[in-house]
Amino acid sequence: MARVGLEKLSKVFKGTRGEPIHAIKDVTLTVEDKEFLVLVGPSGCGKSTTLRLIAGLEEVSGGTISIDGNVMNPIPAWNRDIAMVFQNYALYPHMTVGENMAFGLKLRKFPGPEIEKRVREAAKMLGLLPYLDRYPKALSGGERQRVAVGRAIVRQPKVFLFDEPLSHLDAPLRTQLRGEISRLHRRLGATMIYVTHDQVEAMTLGDRIAVMKEGAIQQVADPMQVYDQPANLFVAGFIGSPPMNFFKGTILCNDTGAYFVEPTSNAQALHVRLHEQAARRLESCAGKDVILGLRPEHVSNHQMQPQRETTLTATVEVIEPMGGETCVYFVSGARRIAARLTAAAKMEVNQKVTLALDMSKAHFFDPASGLALTYIDCQK
Questions:
Q1: What pLDDT digit, counting tens, does each position of 290-347 carry?
Q2: In terms of domains, do 265 and 290 share one?
Q3: Are 183 and 71 in contact (CB under 8 A)?
Q4: Given this model, what pLDDT does residue 266 score?
Q5: Based on the domain organization, do 232 and 255 belong to the same domain?
Q6: DSSP SS3 for 155
């Protein structure tokens, strides 16, 4: 297949008054041969524009795009050996499933027997053999998206590009097609770049994730590294549902240990002891402002946690039963705190509870730059 390289890639559009709008800002990224890389971020972050630049559907403003070391900037889209799957299927309504899948090969003057062979192989792979003679209007949304994927497969391109292909489908179909795309990647051994705003898709599909914000890449790593070791506040808050809890305060050190303290005289101000390993690593931050981050699964009701962890009092505001677990949102002073608890945790709105903060899983960030100060995982 292919290795895709982006070197200081940028894209600038003109606004209504001629002002420059920087959609992509000096993006440098390498997608290895046979890798499944996911570009994830909120709407407007530049992920789809990046994909369109790779495909040749947008003109590059700066930087280079290469495939297997060959610069693609001057190469037209039709000659880049790339297949793209769009979120709106883009099927021809007057063509059958088989004709839609074969259309690109016919344009390239492939012989009839080769076209038929490729179409049937792809249809079998995607469970579309019974539908080859049907028109798109007779298919469900999931079946239409499989046709769009099949049209890309028959091309046998160097690189597959997916632009939010599951965004228009309902939840069960998204789950089903995520599994099919993952199996397809393993079977084809292809280089795939996948764009989504859905962090669940990113976490479950990608060999690596590239998190984007305002046209720039914030972090590139495997899914669990992005989750467990976020590079900055944006990544920490964007990846994870519910999002990470953040607390603004100061690191204070005395003879009894190191503490995170909120700057308020309120009786409910957070005053928590750092885990000993975190205290050692953050010794140089004594007296400095930091932001403490804790994921909802590291906040729990006190009775279910070891005594060594730190507690605070909070009031139940919202309860969201999820079946195997329950997401509970608490109010404590001016703070709102999210927790992911077991389904056995029975609570009522307005109930006062004691929460435990697992400080062995705490994250710390610089409030000025937003960068992670350190990642602490002290569980042995």
A1: 999 999 999 988 655 444 457 888 999 999 998 889 999 999 888 899 999 988 888 8
A2: yes
A3: no
A4: 60
A5: no
A6: helix
Torsion of CA 198, 200, 202, 205, to 10 degrees: -130
Cα dist. 324→216, 320, 344, 374 in Å?
37, 11, 9, 32
Handedness of CA 105, 106, 109, 110 (dihedral sign): positive
Same domain as 252, residue 233 = no
380 falls within a domain: no
What is the distance between the alpha carbons of residues 81 and 219, in angstroms, rounded to a whole number? 28
Identify the burial level of 323 via C-beta atoms within 10 angstroms of its C-beta, where 0-12 means exposed, 13-18 middle and 19 or more buried.
Answer: exposed
| Per-residue pLDDT, 309 | 52
Query: How many other β-carbons are positioned within 10 Å of the β-carbon of residue 53?
Result: 25
Closest to 310 in 3D by CA, of 349, 353, 358: 358
Same domain, 283 and 233: no
Mean pLDDT of 188-197: 94
Model pTM score: 0.89
pLDDT digit string (tens) for 25-34? 999 999 999 9
pLDDT digits (tens, 9 = 90+) for 259-302: 898 886 665 678 888 888 888 888 888 888 999 999 999 998 86
Q: What angle do CA 211, 212, 215 make, to 5 degrees?
A: 165
**Count of domains in the chain?**
2
Q: How many residues does the structure list for the chain?
A: 380
Domain that holds residue 215: 4-238
Give the Cα separation of 93 and 113 in Å (integer): 24
